[in-house]
Amino acid sequence: MKNFTKRPVFIGDTTLRDGEQTAGVVFSAKEKLCIARHLDAMGVHELECGIPAMGKDERSAIRALVELGLNARLITWNRALIPDIEASISCGIKAVDLSLSVSDIMIENKINKSREWVKAQLKQSLSFAKDHDLYVCIGGEDASRADLGFLAELMTIARDNGANRFRFCDTLGILDPFTMFEMVHALTTAVPGIDLEVHTHNDLGLATANALAGVRGGASYISTTVNGLGERAGNAALEEVVMALKVACGIDVGIDTRRLSSVSKLVGQASNREVPAWKAVVGERVFSHESGLHTDGVLKNPTNYEGFPPEEVGLTRHIVAGKHSGTNGIVESYRQIGIPLSREEARLLISKVRSTSQKIKGPLDPGELRRLHASLSLAAA
Predict the structure, then answer these.
(1) Distance of CA 107 to the CA centre of its chain
(2) CA distances, 116 to each of 20, 98, 112, 122, 160 (Å)
(3) What is the model's pLDDT at position 5?
(4) Residues 264 and 239: beta-carbon distance below 8 Å
(5) Is residue 1 exposed (0-12), middle (13-18) or buried (19+ Cβ within 10 Å)?
(6) What are phi and psi of 66, to 5 degrees?
(7) Whose CA is closest to 230, among 11, 61, 14?
(8) Which domains does the chain have, with CATH numbers?
(9) pLDDT tens-digit series, residues 106-130
(10) Minimal CA–CA distance to 85: which of 118, 53, 123?
(11) Alpha carbon of 195 to those of 190, 198, 262, 267, 349: distances in Å?
(12) pLDDT digits (tens, 9 = 90+) for 197-251
């Protein structure tokens, strides 16, 4: 069902924080600035830009981001500790995420504390942050495994003490969309008056679906990363979330989607993680067509087999010559390389194109197409 919410939906991107936490990924200060500029130019609402408590190099990079004067809100990730908040303030940051472990599993086995300690730490750190006029997001680490009643209690404390929003983290990426919807709906219904964000991980391949389910349940913020970078299997991918909201849900979040492929390439290069050609939304070949019936349908009207035009995400359409090509596809493949071909010539070439594709186990490149065309011309002579 499209247009299921009249609430505005905001995109927060954490490529520069959670994305860089991908095992083996390091962004240079210059790359961080470039990525931030690209995300800001396309209209991303908020950038989670680092962890000041990591040290002076991280704080220097964050200060440089602050000095860019971006339209996007810059927010930093912090433990719910006053020294962490002070480190953020020293960078010129005006918004902070204060993270607390909220599941009993983590409270008992990770931080060796109690629920009462978590509530006290929330009040103390939030009070300090608000005394310094900061925008505050309370990050509920492992919220997907937490007791709903306890989460509602924490959200109530957060709201009543001035927090701007609460981050519901599926830290292990274990939820399905139906459970995500139910949990978020229950929380937003039980605790009105505070925005809720969903931060989803992709361990089961459900991060994007869970993000959308969270919005349906009442969330107004979605946390994303470019190309789905992040811990383990990564986070909800910016490009997938934005386009899924737009195409599947009828929700336009105001982001210039034509820039999606370029920012994807940029982050792919900076992270040394090449973007697969078949990557959803931004892969170079996701608008490639070979099958005769599909190609014929696309050439007649692209909406026959494309849910949205490639130009909408900064890509182009490719008609591929291969084992499954039909006559119209062969004509178009040759047109793409500047060789006009009659339908009769295409019929004569089909068997050669198909057999060559079978032999090389893939599509024909322009050189191979020209060679076959030359052999056809020689035979005619």
Answers:
(1) 29
(2) 33, 17, 12, 10, 17
(3) 76
(4) yes
(5) exposed
(6) -60, -40
(7) 14
(8) 10-270 (3.20.20.70), 288-380 (no CATH)
(9) 999 999 999 999 999 999 999 999 9
(10) 53
(11) 12, 10, 31, 29, 61
(12) 999 999 999 999 999 999 999 999 999 999 999 999 999 999 999 999 999 999 9
Joined tokens for residue 131: 């005394």
- H/E stretch holding 73 reads strand 73-79
Q: Please say whether the beta carbons of 237 and 208 come within 8 A.
A: yes
Burial class from Cβ neighbours inside 10 Å (0-12, 13-18, 19+) for residue 94 reads middle
Mean pLDDT value across residues 10-32 = 97
| CA angle (239, 242, 244) in 5-degree steps | 100
Three-state DSSP class for residue 79: strand
pLDDT computed for residue 375 by the predictor: 86
User: What secondary structure does DSSP assign to 83-134, as a single string?
Assistant: HHHHHHHHTT--EEEEEEE-SHHHHHHTS---HHHHHHHHHHHHHHHHHTT-
Per the model's pLDDT, the better-predicted residue between 296 and 10 turns out to be 10
Long-range contacts of 348-352 (CB under 8 A, 24+ apart): 348/376, 349/373, 349/376, 350/325, 350/326, 352/376
What is the reported pTM? 0.93
Rounded to the nearest 10 degrees, how much is the dihedral formed by the CA atoms of 48, 172, 278, 282?
A: -20
pLDDT digits (tens, 9 = 90+) for 298-335: 999 999 999 999 999 999 999 999 999 999 999 999 99
pLDDT value at position 4?
Answer: 72
The token pair at 189 is 């219904």
pLDDT at 7: 85
User: Residue 96, Cβ neighbours under 10 Å: how many?
Assistant: 28
Q: Which residue has the tokens 């087999």?
A: 305
Task: Look up residue 3 and give its two tokens.
Answer: 């247009």
Mean pLDDT of 147-176: 98
For residue 17, which of 4, 37, 43, 36 has the smallest C-alpha distance? 36
Q: Give per-residue burial for 134-148: e unless 16+ CB within 10 Å, then b.
A: bbbbbbbbbbbbbee
Q: Measure the CA–CA gap between 259 and 275, rounded to whole angstroms.
A: 15
Supply 261's token pair: 């492929």
Which tokens belong to 12?
Answer: 């927060």
- pLDDT of residue 288 exceeding 60: yes
* Residue found under tokens 């001035």: 162
